[in-house]
Design a protein that fits this description.
Blueprint (H helix, E strand, L loop, with lengths): L1 H11 L1 H13 L8 H13 L3 E6 L3 E7 L7 E7 L26 H17 L7 E7 L8 H7 L11 E12 L3 E3 L2 E4 L1 E10 L3 E2 L9 H19 L6 E10 L6 E2 L2 E10 L2 H21 L3 E7 L5 E3 L1 H15 L4 E3 L9 H5 L4 E9 L20 H19 L1
Parallel strand pairs: 3-4, 3-5, 5-16, 6-15
Antiparallel strand pairs: 1-2, 2-4, 6-16, 7-14, 8-12, 8-13, 9-11, 10-12
Helix pairs in contact: 1-10, 2-4, 4-10, 6-7, 8-10
The structure holds nickel (II) ion.
The site of nickel (II) ion has 4 residues, from loops.
Length: 398
């Protein structure tokens, strides 16, 4: 049986994948600077005789593995390769060698797993149909994100053109050996909002002679919550949080000239997202004007919503259950964090699932983006094997 062959190969190759993960973990590189990481990925593919192109979005690598009748079906598999500006606090032999830079979001695990998947599939080309397109994507952690750049460069259009795409991400709340999956809305869009409220400053004892931007900004912040509570459809998750307020003033008795307010808007529906952003601008500028001031609203668009295409996701669930057992495929809630895999999900059927990495007995469960994040490396065997299995099963269905 093919699933057993894949399990065997994933098991046999596990030490090699662990070594790859440790190499990546020791040499993390920040978004848009993944030069050595890209070269390392390319060198592994070269070593295994896998056709690839280096230089997508500068440091990205795209590889191709052809099975039988390569043109009959194409699937894309994606891993992100960049690290974060965090100083690692773990005391492990494979600790980061780059001061202030750490694979604290598991992208080393995603990359090593996908290389493991490539190695497995390369051994099995006689046993599956179609082509697997492997995308090693740079710069997930930093806007505009590597995914949108790769899409602009034609990664989804250039032949072999994939019919669908899969991706996985570590989840330290879930034990290693399990995956978490959710159909439909899964992760939020995330846009940054920058408001500059201008009034006319002066002595705080004579507010009637001036225009107080602190008061105006306060009114705007309160009124904008109406976008969430009164305008948003209650069945579409929506968040508006302001994390930063700064006034140009510096004293209790001075009304400043200007106040800056910064926040994040997140939701799960692209049509509503566009409407909401327009409303935020309208309400903020309208309130400022009605109170005699002025508000400039700048919106920096972030990643879109990540939607797991329902039919594909149901099939992935079914295949994963076959490979891992029903007890190891769990339903997980949606999250208001964002991820640039969402860009692919806006273009073609996509499924993004989470790979369990925890080992509670060994105390390995620190959240992502912390300086103590680490994984139970047995997750690499699950990650590499499962994705190979999902690819060959999906290629039968496309
Ligand atoms: Ni991540």
């Amino acid at each position: 049986m093919l699933s057993n062959k894949i399990r065997e190969l994933a098991h046999k190759n596990h030490p090699a994948v662990v070594a790859i993960r440790r190499h990546l973990h020791m040499h993390p590189e920040l978004s848009f600077q993944e030069k050595q990481t890209g070269l390392f990925i390319a060198s592994k593919l070269e070593e295994w005789g896998i056709r690839h192109e280096h230089g997508w979005a500068e440091n990205g690598v795209v590889a191709y593995i052809e099975g039988q009748t390569p043109e009959s079906a194409v699937i894309a598999l994606r891993a992100d390769i960049d690290a974060l500006p965090i100083q690692e606090a773990n005391e492990v032999p494979y600790c980061s060698r780059n001061p202030g830079v750490m694979h604290a979001c598991g992208h080393d695990v995603h990359t090593a797993s996908l290389l493991g998947t490539a190695f497995i599939l390369k051994q099995l080309t006689a046993h599956f149909r179609g082509t697997v397109k492997l995308i090693f994507q740079p710069a997930e952690e930093k806007l505009p994100g590597g995914a949108s750049i790769l899409i602009e460069e034609g990664v989804l259009q250039k032949p072999p053109k994939p019919a669908e795409i899969l991706g996985q991400h570590v989840l330290p709340e879930l034990p290693s050996g399990k995956i978490g999956i959710r159909e439909g809305m899964f992760m939020a869009s995330a846009d940054e909002i920058y408001l500059t409220v201008t009034g006319k400053g002066g002595h705080a004892a004579a507010p009637h002679q001036f225009t107080d931007p602190v008061y105006i900004a306060s009114q705007i912040i309160v009124a904008l919550q109406e976008v969430v509570s009164r305008r948003a459809n209650p069945i579409i998750p929506t968040v508006l949080s302001f994390g930063k307020i700064n006034s140009s003033g510096g004293a209790t008795n001075v009304i400043p000239n200007e106040v800056k307010v910064e926040g994040t808007f997140r939701t799960m529906d692209e049509i509503w997202r566009a409407e909401a952003l327009a409303t935020i601008e309208q309400v903020a500028t309208g309130i400022a004007k009605s109170l005699g001031g002025f508000c400039e609203a700048k919106i920096k668009k972030g990643y879109p919503c990540l939607i797991n295409e329902p039919r594909l996701t149901r099939r992935v669930k079914k295949h994963a259950t076959g490979y891992l057992g029903a007890e190891n495929v769990v339903e997980i809630p949606m999250r208001m964090t964002s991820e640039d895999f969402a860009c692919y999900s806006q273009v073609l059927p996509a499924c993004f699932y989470r790979l369990g990495t925890a080992n509670d007995e060994q105390g390995i469960n620190s959240p992502v983006h912390t300086n103590t994040f680490d994984v139970d490396e047995s997750c690499l065997e699950t990650g590499a094997g499962l994705m190979a299995w999902l690819a060959v099963k999906e290629l039968e269905e496309i």
